Amino acid sequence: MTRIFSGIKPTGHLTLGNYLGAVRRWAEVDQYRADALFSVVDLHALTVEHDPARVRRLSRQAVTLLLAAGLDPERCTLFVQSHVDEHARLSYLLECTATDGELRRMIQYKEKSAAARAAGQSVRVSLLTYPALMAADILAYETDEVPVGDDQTQHVELTRDLAVRFNQRYGHTFTVPRATPPKVGARVMDLQDPTGKMGKSHENGAGIVYLLDEPDVVRRKVMRAVTDSGRDVAYDREGRPGVANLLDVLAACGGGEPAELAGAYTSYGALKKDVAEAVVEVLRPLRERHASLVAEPGYVDAVLREGAERARAVARPVVDRAYRAVGLLPPG
Ligand code: ATP
Ligand code: MG
């Protein structure tokens, strides 16, 4: 059976980008067709300046939102990364497999290290080694497919390279995975800066739709989305990124092809109105289920306990095998 792994960082409130690019497919498709593991990857949240209480709160909120989005613990394994030691154990071996040049080439490292420096913060070593930990997340589960948004495909490519290199050096140990981005919604752009992707850790929330935003807040953000000075509605990602993003979101939420949907509109106002309503409708059930799950903290705890146990049982033998393969003496 196909094995799927994917994760989400507790670095901010989950966004429409996270949902359309990743989470929706996990809930609607992946958990039904594969042996799927999904993780709130909290260790990755420590690669940038963080507030301990906030990370703890956001981790719990992310788990609750994933359940609200429809992940069913009977059908998939849902767990918190730091509850399973194998991730950190394997990450070290992959740091010993990757080169510093390859890590420095990662776009996410370049962007996030530049942002930290611009904010007068130092850059943590773990921001550079992040892809080794992400590769460990994936390889520890003998993963075949990694459903992620466009922005993560470079990290999955590196994971493939590391798996192949490790296997060549030390004998076959890891399954070589591949990224599977969605057809629509793979890169939702920021509504205020449609040349940059919507990201949950970004400072300015005006261009970001959060999954828990009230309907009126969603409407306001969409109606204020930056477009351009043109009048007619056309789908042109390069030339008119703001309008193209709205058409992408409409297609991802309501169906259809972005370029064809464009033909149905003669004004930006009408398009924005429809986008706002489509997003509100997609998020409505999620917000409602989230509210009822918050009232059941014991249930969420039980899901995480069982999820960690199941994940450990899969990862343990794989990581033990990797430890033996590189030449580390097995304990007595
Ligand atoms: P951060 O700003 O902290 O990096 P993020 O919003 O990028 O947060 P991640 O935890 O890095 O979220 O990624 C979780 C998943 O969501 C990944 O599969 C990623 O590809 C996907 N994703 C993130 N942002 C977008 C987006 N704007 N459009 C589509 N998919 C996205
Ligand atoms: Mg990200």
Automatic annotation (TrEMBL):
Motif 'KMSKS' region, chain ranges: 197-201
InterPro entries in alphabetical order: aa-tRNA-synth_I_CS, aa-tRNA-synth_Ic, Rossmann-like_a/b/a_fold, Trp-tRNA-ligase, Trp-tRNA-ligase_bac-type, Trp-tRNA_synthetase
Annotated GO MF terms: tryptophan-tRNA ligase activity
Record keywords, A-Z: Aminoacyl-tRNA synthetase, ATP-binding, Cytoplasm, Ligase, Nucleotide-binding, Protein biosynthesis
Motif 'HIGH' region: where in chain: 10-18
Residue sites binding ATP per the record: K9, P10, T11, G17, N18, G149, D150, D151, V188, K197, M198, G199, K200, S201
Protein name: Tryptophan--tRNA ligase
Organism: Streptomyces lavendulocolor
Gene name for this UniProt entry: trpS
